[in-house]
C-alpha cells in the first residue's frame, strides 16, 4: 500500500508574488528560497522552506485557471495542502479503487518537474489535497 | 529574534470527529493517534500524525465559537495552519512591534496544555495562522 511520507507544502493563493513577502519574510521570518514558473499549471510559485516542508505562495499566470477563479471568488488564502507519497501511481490506483475521485486520470507535472495529482475536494472533506512524488 | 521551527499542524474544520475518518484513515492511510477535548478553545480534536507534523480534525463543542461560525458559513475545510516557534512570548512581542495584529494580547492554552496565539488573518494574507510553543 502506498504511503504518505510528510507534508510537502501548504499552498497559499496570492494576488502577486512580491507584496505578500512583507508578511512571510519580513514579519514572520521565513526566507524565500527560489521562485519558479510552472507552465503546465499556469502558475508562478515562491518557495519558503519550513523545516521538512514548505510554504508555497502561488499566483496564476492565466485567468482561465482554477486558481485564478478561486482568487476571484474567495480572495487570497490557503488554497491546498500537499502530501509527499512514496508511490504516486500506486496511491492513485488505490484511491480510485476505494471510490475517491481524482482531478486527473494521469499524474500531472508539478513544480520541480515531479509528478502529482489532486484529490477531488468533495471526497476529502472540503480540502483540496495534492499528492506529490519526488523522483 | 524568535524563530519558526516547523509546521506543527494543519487544522481541518469538521462537522463531527467520526465520519471524516473514513477518508483520512481508511482511504488516505493516516492513523488517528488520540482525541482530546480542549475546554479553553471549546473544541474537540482528533490528531493524525504525518511525519514531524499533524493533521488535526477540529470540531466546536459550543455554537458561539469562531470555529462554529466558520463551519456554518463556509462548511468543512482547512481552518488554520500552525507553526511551532522556539519562543512564543518573544515572537508575539516582535510581531506586535512590526504592526501585526494578534487575536489575543496574551498566550492562550492550546491542546496539550501548551501556549499559543493566533495572528489576525487580515495581516497574514487571508490565512489564519496559529503560533505554538511546546514547553
Written account of the structure:
Two copies of one chain form a homodimer. Chain A is an alpha+beta fold. Chain A contains three helices and eight strands, in the order βαβββαβαβββ. An eight-stranded mixed β-sheet of chain A has the order 2-3-4-1-5-8-7-6. In chain A, a hairpin with a 2-residue loop joins strand 3 and strand 4. Chain A is globular and about 45 Å long. The two termini of chain A are about 20 Å apart. The interface between A and B is large, with 38 and 38 residues.
Brief descriptors of the model:
homodimer, 135 residues, alpha+beta, 3 helices
SS field, number of helical segments of chain A: 3
For this entry, what is the oligomeric state of its chains? homodimer
- The class by helix and strand makeup of chain A works out as alpha+beta
The total beta strand count of chain A reads 8
In one word, what is the shape of chain A?
Answer: globular
> Which residues of chain A form runs of ≥5 with pLDDT under 50?
none
Residues in helices of chain A, as a percent range: 10-25%
Secondary-structure element pattern of chain A, one letter each: EHEEEHEHEEE
Mean pLDDT of chain A: 95
Percent in strands of chain A: 35-45%
**Major β-sheet profile of chain A:** 8 strands, mixed
Nearest-angstrom radius of gyration of chain A?
15 Å
Task: Walk me through the topology.
2 copies of one chain form a homodimer.
Chain A: E1 4-13, H1 21-27, E2 34-38, E3 43-50, E4 53-60, H2 66-74, E5 77-85, H3 88-97, E6 108-109, E7 115-119, E8 129-133
Parallel strand pairs in A: 1-4, 5-8
Antiparallel strand pairs in A: 1-5, 2-3, 3-4, 6-7, 7-8
